[in-house]
């Protein structure tokens, strides 16, 4: 077994367009959604594990690199996200136990996908299998990386660039936030860290309308390229235009869960140790009970009634999206049209955070309160000036248009599944939430 | 023997490319085995396979193994051990690192001279070993890598063959990139085996530099000259406290008490203040490095060694500066084959190869009564950060293998590292290598901004 040496890990647009997932029939929008979803898991789990931000940054870069080499259809996004944050904690010298990682991912899954919030028995077969899967996936990641896992982040360049350019202090936090959000995209495997750093500096400067030197061009001093910088801005603007990323089961060997919800129907035999298909065989799907039929058996064409239902759900989705838009997005979105063919499809991080915060507040648990404080700080940092409100309204309009255009291209199957999943998820959340309250009261 | 035991068990697929010979060492991380390559392109080439056990609580691949592999995969130098391959055993989740095998290490060479030859190592060999060690270390430091566990058993020397007598720095389990560490290096805990530990480490320095490696080189240099460790202190392992009174006592007896005048940053070291009554309670009136070494204070060797053992890490000589020292410019000049002297008058020493335990199978269980285990040059650091093994001081029974091997000129079919600059590095045996000229092309990131060897410009960070 000879590993290919990887000196640098950067891909061309063509290579990204022909990713392993694409070859497995996963379309670009789905891959983008799963990339964002995986990065959301890494970020949230890192917070729960009390890891420094550098660990989550490294984990997200490893996550993107891995799925440039392997398909989402063969490696479950939840497993890879868990192993990436675990591996990153080792690389960045803040190691966490497998037990801690599994407990956190189990808990996040129950909340995100509205499974019953059960206790994970550390002596059950389920737990032992999860631990084995975590280790196996870690080895796959190391193997695909050729054991070269050094990651350089744009953050380390931002402060120096801004100091050299003598910009106002508020640009620093804005650029830093943009760099964090850029990790949810594939910018880290397309451009060197210096280019991404220049891109977020540029985007922050435009946001605050701070002029930067054009003659000579400021980016020349920082190893940046104008085309790369512009692309960074486009990708980030597109990221903020996307709805919250939801889990989409695409694995060929059936779905995977950290919780026991699916283990009831799982076969008793031990899953085979197949390197390429590490997911255990599983006849259950993640669609909540009551769903009419399985998502993957849904026909693409369908009857007129089904089409109408999908359209109605799209409207509902748009309405809920409008209600949740409380965050400002990038100013340059108005100045430059979004080229979807180039930009990656990525979800809006801050909107997700906002929604999560509301949900967590309803539960009122202490840990949630701590997390709320963290998110409150983040929100305070992100708060714009009053003049941004007008811009927000205009951008909301533009987002509606983009949403309509974006969703019309989605396949009916994906739309239907997504809508049904969302609706049932909401219903389940309400009922389980009351159950959680009872449990909390008993404690 | 290896073949017979191998055929009795089903071997993992990756293992079938090797003929297993036997166990050559062990440590806290696992075992080291000697093997030979079967394939026609490299038939008979010796490989050392270092096994990393999975930790008992099942926390996946050990961070030490990942770190060692990451570093070794990115560096290529004639005087640094070559990682040939990495194997993952899916059955027990073990990790195996395959290295080019080196028959000798400085520990065994020194011990052989002390116990068998009963005569000091000749000047040519000492100088060549030291030069090559510094050459490899300069490469590491130029790429912002601190080794942090330099000691004789980690300095390998190649046996008969194409690279006969070439020095290889081994065991990167404690090594770190220190260009921009996210945390202070001191958070890794206690590093460097105690006899080779620099005084700033013993006094609890929060920030330290590659100078800790140069102190260790100084201790190794002295040991090559005198055949015994220079500062042989007893380590107290009860607490993770970096302060080791006995080790400091051994240092002060030879070099004298450090003073604020000569080492201004001494006052900032935590244990200089906390344990000052212990430290200053002793008197060191008769301290003398030259009497311990039996070298003239005017000799270049003494001058170089005293600069390596400078208390103040900022004044301590660097690897780049040491390579330019007068000691390496006087006769005999150092050569690529450190073991075969080029002077006709020098005694040629036939060093024994490392003993091999052929009774232990690959899983580590013994088929018969095992002979006393010995450590290979790569056998040191454990899985825990800061974990290390004290150097051996007990003589071991000598088991000389009578096997003869014929060297092969063969392609490096399994070499994962780049071959860039490899040809330029080749040097006929016995001819001194050019000093100050980079032996290898750097392969690491351009952002380092330090192409080749920075002879004089490199400044050390505090």
UniProtKB/TrEMBL annotation, chain A:
Q: What keywords were assigned to this record?
A: Cell cycle, Cell division, Cyclin
Sorted alphabetically, which InterPro entries does this protein's record hold?
Answer: Cyclin-like_dom, Cyclin-like_sf, Cyclin/Ssn8, Cyclin_N
- What does the entry list under GO cellular component? nucleus
Keyword Cell cycle present in the record's keywords: the answer is yes
Organism equals Glycine max (Soybean)
- Which residue stretches does the UniProt record annotate as biased composition, category Basic and acidic residues? 312-402, 427-437
**What gene name is given for the protein in this entry?**
LOC100820383
Annotated protein name in UniProt: Cyclin-L1-1
Q: Which family does it belong to?
A: Belongs to the cyclin family. Cyclin L subfamily.
Q: In which residue ranges is the amino acid composition biased (Polar residues)?
A: 260-286
Q: Which GO terms describe its molecular function?
A: cyclin-dependent protein serine/threonine kinase regulator activity
Record's keyword annotation contains Transcription: no
Q: Which residues form the Cyclin-like domain?
A: 40-143, 156-241
One GO biological process term: cell division
The record describes its quaternary structure and partners as: Interacts with the CDC2 protein kinase to form a serine/threonine kinase holoenzyme complex also known as maturation promoting factor (MPF). The cyclin subunit imparts substrate specificity to the complex.
| SUPFAM superfamilies, per the entry | Cyclin-like (SSF47954)
* Region annotated Disordered, chain positions: 260-443
UniProtKB/TrEMBL annotation, chain B:
The cross-references to Pfam families, in alphabetical order and at most eight, read: Pkinase
EC nos: 2.7.11.22, 2.7.11.23
Q: Which annotated residues bind ATP?
A: 51
Instruction: Give the reactions, separated by semicolons, that this protein catalyses.
Output: [DNA-directed RNA polymerase] + ATP = phospho-[DNA-directed RNA polymerase] + ADP + H(+); L-seryl-[protein] + ATP = O-phospho-L-seryl-[protein] + ADP + H(+); L-threonyl-[protein] + ATP = O-phospho-L-threonyl-[protein] + ADP + H(+)
Name the keywords, alphabetized.
Answer: ATP-binding, Kinase, Nucleotide-binding, Phosphoprotein, Serine/threonine-protein kinase, Transferase
| UniProt region (Disordered), positions on chain | 368-395, 419-462
Give the record's GO CC terms.
Answer: mediator complex; nucleus
Supply one GO molecular-function term: RNA polymerase II CTD heptapeptide repeat kinase activity
- Gene3D superfamilies registered for this protein in UniProt: Phosphorylase Kinase, domain 1, Transferase(Phosphotransferase) domain 1
Residues covered by the Protein kinase domain? 18-328
Q: Which PANTHER family match?
A: CELL DIVISION PROTEIN KINASE (PTHR24056), CYCLIN-DEPENDENT KINASE 8-RELATED (PTHR24056:SF495)
Family, similarity comment: Belongs to the protein kinase superfamily. CMGC Ser/Thr protein kinase family. CDC2/CDKX subfamily.
What is the designated name of this protein? Cyclin-dependent kinase E-1
- Organism of origin: Glycine max
Gene that this sequence comes from: LOC100813433
